[in-house]
Amino acid sequence: MKIYTTAPLEDPRGAGASFRQLEEIGYDGAFSFEAKHDPFLPLVSAAEATQDLRLGTAVAIAFARNPMNLANLAYGIQSISEGRFILGLGSQIRPHVENRFSMPWSSPAKRMREIVLAIKAIFACWEGQAELDFRGEFYRHTLMIPAFDPGPNPFGPPPIYLGGFGPLMMEVAGEVADGFFGHPFNTRKSLESKVLPAIERGLAKSGRSRDQLDLIFSTMVVTADSEEAFERSKLAARKQLAFYGSTPAYRPTLDCHGWGDLHLELNRLSKQNRWDEMANLIEDDVLEAIAVVGPRNEIADKLKARLAGIADGVSLTHNRAPDPRDWSDIVSELKLGA
């Protein structure tokens, strides 16, 4: 099982050093994401500062861009990184796409499927495999002249991974993508009962087998070196899970365990901005079902047990604390016998 994480990037000027440190710790790959900064720019510095680390966007917002723009960015970083780039795409939600990015929103799963197919058609053109003649419902790419054709990438086209939570988006990943990023608001039970069946339906549509899709599941880790720090880490995780759990789209994970009423209460409190009270509703059984919780010397074994037989890779995450650069011991233990 490959070990990944998301690089802390509050200041993009430190991207090179941050990714280099993650490589030295032993991570197999590290991702940027779309928040305060563009997710592609830090990876240029990261590519030049590292040698073997896989680099990717987890995720870049697909609907904020168009297939040609994404293809150009991906091709460039694939070259700079000498074949180590993963183009990871996600949809975001309608208010952000329309009101933050001023871009159209409709039929997100269908639109994402078309974006992936359009990018692959552009890659095929640049690789000299076909004329550019993509005509879809949302995107149309039929013009490519020599002045704008970069030609074959010396390292081949980069793979395209999708992130998503809903069953339709997961089916799209299984059908047309090269990999899938699983959301951290999942349990072993929800992965087995909801995520994997949707992925399998998508694979069946394309006639592919499971070994043709790379599955990387983001998993929240809660651990620390002292009891005081451990309690802080658990509180931070409770707040994050309360935020996720208040969102209707994420309710299916709670429903898997009969916790649907928890979503209703979290949603009600969120509308009243009662965030501290929401965190108190995340009891230990909920926390430990979704996150991997325990002393540092137990985390690696618990992660292996959580994902054994269902994942090709794990992305260690804790959205608020601690820093993934502090987990060298956990990474080492995970790699033993991997």
Question: Which sequence of SSEs, written as H and E, runs from N to C?
Answer: EHEHEEHEHHEEEHEHEHHHHHEHEH
Oligomerization: single chain
DSSP strand content: 5-15%
Number of strands: 12
Spans of at least 5 consecutive residues whose pLDDT stays below 50 are none
Distance between the termini: 6 Å
Q: Per the principal axes of the C-alpha atoms, what is the gross shape?
A: globular
**Biggest sheet architecture:** 8 strands, parallel, barrel
Structural class: alpha/beta
| Mean pLDDT rating | 95
Q: Which short descriptors sum up this protein?
A:
alpha/beta; 14 helices; 338 residues; 8-stranded parallel beta barrel; 15% strand
What features would you describe in this structure?
This protein has 338 residues and is of the alpha/beta class. It contains 14 helices and twelve strands. The protein has an eight-stranded parallel β-barrel, surrounded by seven helices. β8, α6 (167-176) and β9 form a beta-alpha-beta unit. α3 crosses α5 (108-126). The longest helix is centred in the middle third of the chain and has 19 residues, at 108-126. The mean pLDDT is 95.
Topology readout:
Elements: E1 2-6, H1 15-25, E2 29-32, H2 41-49, E3 54-57, E4 60-61, H3 67-80, E5 85-90, H4 94-100, H5 108-126, E6 134-135, E7 140-141, E8 160-164, H6 167-176, E9 179-182, H7 188-206, E10 214-222, H8 227-245, H9 251-255, H10 260-270, H11 275-280, H12 284-290, E11 292-293, H13 296-307, E12 313-317, H14 328-335
Parallel strand pairs: 1-2, 1-12, 2-3, 3-5, 4-5, 5-8, 8-9, 9-10, 10-11, 10-12
Antiparallel strand pairs: 6-7
Helix pairs in contact: 1-2, 3-5, 5-6, 6-7, 13-14
